[in-house]
Amino acid sequence: MSYKITFDETKCVACGACAIACMDQNDILVEEGQFPLRRTFTRESRLHPEEKFGYYSHACEHCDEAPCIPACPSGCLFKDPETGFTVFDTTNCIGCRSCAFACPHGAPAMGLDGKMLKCDGCNQRVKAGMLPACVAVCPFDALALVEE
Amino acid sequence: MKKTAIIGFGCAGYHALRAMRENGYEGEIHVYADVSHPPANPMLTTYYVAGRIPYEGMFPFGSLADLVREYPATLHMDTAVSRLDTSNRRVILSDKTKEDYDQILIATGARAVSPALGKGGGNRRFVMRTAQDAQRLKKLLDEDNVSSAVVVGASMVGIKVVELLYDRGISVILTDLAPRMFPLACMEETAQEIRLDLERRGIVTMLGSGVDKVEEYEQGIFTYLTDGRVLESDLLVLCMGTRANVELVANTHIIRKEPVKVNRGIVADTHMQTTIPGIYAAGDCCEGLNIQTGTTALIGLWANAAEQGRVAGINLADGSAAYDGSLPSNITHYFDVDFVGVGDPDIPGQRHVFHNSTGTYALTEQEGRISCINLLGSYRSSGMLRQALMKIIAGKDPEFGPDRWGLLLASGVPEEFLKLMGGLL
Question: B215, B242, B269 — which closes off a domain?
Fold first, then answer.
């Protein structure tokens, strides 16, 4: 079994509830300079004015062949066999940023302790039969948990 | 039953073993390694010396017992292979024992360059590559009263050695024959910023001058530079790069006049097979495809070794996999600085350098083609930009879609920088 969190930009209204829920779930200390593990942003297109604005919500894509896993020199990243999410144990993380360098989606960041931090798909919530926090609060179902 | 030999048990050897078992290979696998410990990551040695990880932390795949339980193999540890008899498909061990194989992977890695530079017993001279190197340096630093050090090599390893010595309050001089910091990854502009930052911290840099000789005495060591300067310190750490361990394959010329092509490393095709069928090579001993030049090259990176080992393992298991190639790519974090270099900084072209609150962003461009990027101060966009540059070099669209564009901007990348890389507006 493998889960993914999908995003439908046509349903997004840029409310930012997903990022707030992520901060709450993961105890992100924004006032100390941390960012939520899910980032929201707006893009204005100049080449295609008819598109006007696009709203986006972005976090780890939990790639099937996640390049961050073999790139980690300390073996901190791995797949949860139950959910398929790319999860981590940063006991031996050295904060080298190799995971961020390998990720084509800009997902891994560093926590206040200098160790890697990224979206784990709310792995424990999903294992307990719950939705990821960002999916649970999305008011227009732009975010969804899908089983592959 | 088919019998596979894997010579060397580092990152590439481990990933080959794993890929073979995960892809249904049921034959025998014999792993030969001239060390007794599990696969180690050379990059972690400086972190162990710095006290950031325990000794076991240098072995990211766990214990040998755990590895063999998960991926069955016969391990021949502390066993050096001295030669290959390719005619009879045998490995010849250092004790003259001969063992048969049907197919073989050479994953012998690389060793630290350590030239003979003069007098002394070597007690105050160090390199930094293996777990043993790290233990040796850590022991001296923990037990001796070290107050000064010379580090030779303004490289990714050298800077981490400088950092760990500096953090212990040791006065450090950094030297390199090259005239700039990180010469294989860094453009002149970013190299100068890095050097000035080190100098501001009190680290003396002497670039553009090689080491002529060293003289060791009981309490210290003299380092003679080629420009005539003489440095006296408590210890000397040589971080002058690595040399691929190709001798095993090079020796096959002697046994059988069939060429295994060896340049600076063992040349492998995209299936990680050498010029002799049935002999594969992967990891730091091996030249794989450099997508920037279209030729094979040594690009000694942990992730490359993992991928090359995986590809070799799948093919050894009668599967079909190809190595897509790579290009020189480095990221390092030292003190509070992030440096990223992707591509060859020596390819000529126009330099574009941008500064903002998140850091410095530099690229080399010629006739619309980007050949190198440097980031200084920010790592968050590094993976996205590296991926984009690899696509550009491969002649593909960097695929800066709207979401990627927004993410890069949100990560602090200047809009002008993205425009030069071919992003949408």
Answer: B242
